[in-house]
């Protein structure tokens, strides 16, 4: 039996430039900055994929925006086993909902959110969980290897689970970052538990891998290559990551941890910008986003840089990206394509194909890019 739990506020902090969505104060600030969560859309993509193969399926879930709304919108049957105590939900609500769904007999629970939401699911299921879990990516930080590469991939895995009466599962790490510490420039993912996750090549994402200390020289060289390509009069939207942090260091500025800064002529003009601030910056003149590859996962867009929304990327024009990464990051993907997941399938299709990556002064690599939401399942 399939279960579903949705964190209704997952991802709301991303477009607001807050690098996370934990806590009522952060969520309020995100809304004040014009941000909204896209979690219901992401849940809907997973469920409509499941419903296409198993119409009328019963799904064990929580009431309202924590699951039932999305289940019913997809034409499936919601069997509600949990109701949140208030109109606003918290981490405790996620924990209680996951526990109730598992207790009701779900053998695979789709959890829609980010790393923090999956951390709550791990708390609900205890140290030796027997219920399988699959994350539907809808948060800001998704470093853990417990997520599908896209909502449709999650729905396809759930459909396979129903068709085949289950799938092999593998213990995968639940990682999260202390958001309060991160805003003080302390960025260190912590292991919070393990979850049994169904895994199939191309449908589940890998764990985020840090850059080894031995790669410092390669990172510095890649950053030098990017800096050499930067021109006066162009606004650069400098994304998060170790390689882009090295770009900032070589420019003589201190970038915001896990944020996106707007640079003009070697100076930061907007720090930790929101989606709306990025749109305003792009409207002022020529601009380009400077991004790197998430090690191990291969994501370029849609993981930790949601401020670079589809609207911002479209506003950047036909050549929106300056991608910088050490060559070893590409080698470590073992031929797997880079990934884009902007939430806009038309834009993802435009970005798919190949991208030129700056790997050093005068050195580039042409590498394949795929859009998981458009990949045949």
TrEMBL record:
InterPro entries membership: AcoX-like (IPR039065), ATP-NAD_kinase_N (IPR017438), NAD/diacylglycerol_kinase_sf (IPR016064), NADK (IPR002504), Put_ATP-NAD_kin (IPR011386)
Gene3D superfamilies reported in the protein's UniProt record: Probable inorganic polyphosphate/atp-NAD kinase, domain 1
GO molecular function: ATP binding; NAD binding; NAD+ kinase activity
BP GO annotations: NADP+ biosynthetic process
Sequence intervals crossing the membrane: none
Pfam hit, one: NAD_kinase
PANTHER family to which the protein is assigned, alphabetical: ACETOIN CATABOLISM PROTEIN X, ATP-NAD KINASE-RELATED
This protein's name: Predicted polyphosphate-or ATP-dependent NAD kinase
């Amino acid at each position: 039996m399939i279960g579903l739990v949705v964190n209704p506020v997952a991802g709301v902090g991303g477009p607001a430039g807050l690098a996370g969505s934990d806590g009522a104060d952060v969520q309020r600030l995100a809304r004040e900055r014009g941000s909204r969560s896209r979690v219901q859309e992401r849940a809907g993509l997973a469920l409509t994929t499941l419903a296409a193969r198993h119409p009328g399926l019963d799904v064990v879930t929580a009431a309202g925006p924590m699951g039932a709304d999305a289940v019913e919108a997809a034409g499936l049957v919601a069997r509600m086993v949990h109701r949140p105590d208030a109109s606003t939900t918290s981490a405790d609500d996620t924990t209680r909902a996951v526990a109730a769904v598992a207790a009701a007999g779900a053998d695979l629970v789709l959890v829609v959110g980010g790393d923090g939401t999956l951390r709550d699911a791990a708390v609900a299921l205890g140290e030796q969980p027997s219920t399988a879990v699959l994350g539907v990516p809808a948060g800001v930080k998704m470093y853990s290897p417990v997520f599908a590469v896209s909502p449709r991939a999650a729905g396809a895995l759930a459909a396979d689970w129903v068709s085949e009466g289950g799938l092999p599962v593998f213990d995968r790490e639940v990682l999260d970052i202390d958001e309060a510490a991160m805003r003080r420039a302390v960025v260190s993912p912590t292991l919070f538990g393990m979850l049994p996750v169904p895994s199939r090549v191309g449908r589940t994402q890998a764990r985020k891998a840090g850059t080894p200390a031995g790669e410092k020289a390669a990172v510095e060289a890649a950053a030098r290559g990017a800096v050499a390509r930067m021109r006066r009069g162009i606004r650069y939207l400098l994304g998060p990551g170790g390689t882009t942090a090295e770009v900032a260091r070589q420019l003589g500025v201190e970038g915001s941890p896990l944020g996106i800064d707007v640079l003009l002529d070697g100076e930061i003009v907007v720090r930790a910008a929101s989606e709306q601030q990025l749109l305003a910056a792009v409207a002022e003149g020529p601009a380009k986003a400077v991004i790197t590859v998430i090690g191990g996962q291969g994501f370029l867009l849609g993981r930790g840089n949601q401020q670079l929304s589809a609207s911002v990327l479209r506003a950047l024009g036909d050549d929106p990206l300056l991608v910088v990464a050490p060559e070893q990051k590409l080698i470590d993907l073992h031929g797997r394509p880079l990934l884009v997941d902007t939430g806009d399938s038309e834009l993802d299709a435009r970005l798919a194909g190949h991208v030129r990556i700056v790997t050093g002064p005068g050195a580039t690599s042409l590498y394949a890019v795929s859009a998981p939401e458009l990949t045949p399942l």
